[in-house]
Amino acid sequence: MGNPVTEMLGIKFPVFQGGMGNISDPALAASVSNAGGLGTIGAGTLPVAEIEKRMDKMRSLAASPCCVNIAISVHPNADEVIRLAIEKKIPVVSLSAGNPSKYIPVLHQNGIKVICVSSTVRQAKKAEAAGADILVCEGYEAAGINAANESTTMVLVPQIVKAVNIPVVAAGGIADGKGLAAALSLGAYGVQMGTRFIATKEAQFHPVYKKAVMEATDEATMIIGRRYQMVRRVFKNAYAVYLRELEESGADPGRFKALTSEAHHERGALQGDMEHGFINGGQIAGLIEDCPSVAQLLEEMVKEAQAVLTRSMARL
User: Fold this and answer.
1) What is the mean pLDDT of residues 185-200?
2) Is the pTM of this model over 0.85?
3) What pLDDT, on a 0 to 100 scale, did the predictor assign at position 313?
4) Which of 53, 71, 144, 164 could serve as a FRET partner for 42 with CA atoms 20 to 30 Å apart?
5) Maximum CA extent, the chain
6) What gap in Å lies between CA 96 and CA 107, rounded to an integer?
7) What does the chain look like in DSSP terms, one character per residue?
8) Is residue 14 within 8 Å of residue 5, measured between CB atoms?
């Protein structure tokens, strides 16, 4: 019995890269795809012309299938980004943060596989009914924007696996082979990671960001935005503490939204400005201590997962 995710997408390893919004790096995405996973760039809130440049660069560097993530309710012109993905013959599109039903048929008509990101069983069922090929089920351990219900990966994945008939991929709190083995044990067919890929040789993020990931403890991240139903997991830095204080003081939601825009994300992640910008980070960062190449990371993850599953069987 093979893995339906790797077979469907034509990839070697059942490991996806998260989209990462405006800070996504086409060279990193291509490295993930070329190493056997599914590399992804995010449309975020970027101008369509910039997204086109990143698509072109990713496609020119990637010899294997790659993906574009479109946060439907986040990008001001999602329809145009969909059109661009079709025009550029992107083989896989990931849809999140909105209703994917009107986009899936046209993507399928153009031979594009569709991944939908879900954070509840209800969302997963609706995405399956709309024709999604694969579901990424993301717990709130994950970096960046999260669902208000804050379900964890360990409780979310098996419930969604039970509720749907299409392949499920687990996201949130995964950074190594043990996490991959755990996801497979819960019924998923693979994993999606974001924070782990920050600390890789190919990633073009600011050294301060990489250092924050590798020096993180289990208490290094925090949630902001609960008051405004804008749940986001970030690393604790001066700017994140400032945002938390604003939230606790009952600041205007519009002001809070402006201060957590992708412009501030870029300041932290790409410019290393911890006074005026934030950096997304998953809870699993406390487990990350090194900065391997993407190829080394994926190879070691799969080997470790195989060893862990073998040892686990012996314990029964």
Assistant:
1) 96
2) yes
3) 79
4) 164
5) 56
6) 15
7) ---HHHHHHT-SSSEEEP--GGG--HHHHHHHHHTTSBEEEE-TT--HHHHHHHHHHHHHH-SS-EEEEEETTTSTTHHHHHHHHHHTT-SEEEEESS--TTTHHHHHHTT-EEEEEESSHHHHHHHHHHT-SEEEEE-TTSSEE--TT---HHHHHHHHHHH-SS-EEEESS--SHHHHHHHHHTT-SEEEESHHHHTSTT--S-HHHHHHHHT--TT-EEEE-GGGT--EEEE--HHHHHHHHHHHTT--HHHHHHHTSHHHHHHHHTT--TTT---B--GGGGG------HHHHHHHHHHHHHHHHHHHHHH-
8) yes
State CA 292 to chain mean position distance: 19
Rounded to the nearest 10 degrees, the angle between the axes of helix 177-185 and helix 294-315 is 50
- DSSP string computed for 51-68: HHHHHHHHHHH-SS-EEE
User: What is the crossing angle of helices 153-163 and 177-185, to 10°?
Assistant: 40
Q: Tokens 């998953």 correspond to what residue?
A: 282
Helices 26-34 and 48-61 sit at what angle, rounded to 10 degrees? 30
Residue 1 pLDDT: 61
* CA angle at 97 for the pair 94 and 103, rounded to the nearest 5°: 55
pLDDT tens digit string along 258-315? 999 989 999 999 999 999 999 999 999 999 999 999 999 999 999 999 999 999 877 8
- 290 CB-contact burial (10 Å; exposed 0-12 / middle 13-18 / buried 19+): exposed
